[in-house]
Amino acid sequence: MTLDPAVSLRLAFLIRVVGRESDHLMLTDQRLFAVPFDVARAERLSADPDLAERVEAFVGRFARLQDTLGDKLIPVLLSALGERSGAAIDNLDQAERLGFLHSVDQWLAMRQLRIQMVHEYVEDPVILAGALQSAHAFVPSLLSAVVAVRDEVMRRGWLMEDGSGAVSR
Question: What is the pTM of this model?
Answer without folding.
Answer: 0.90
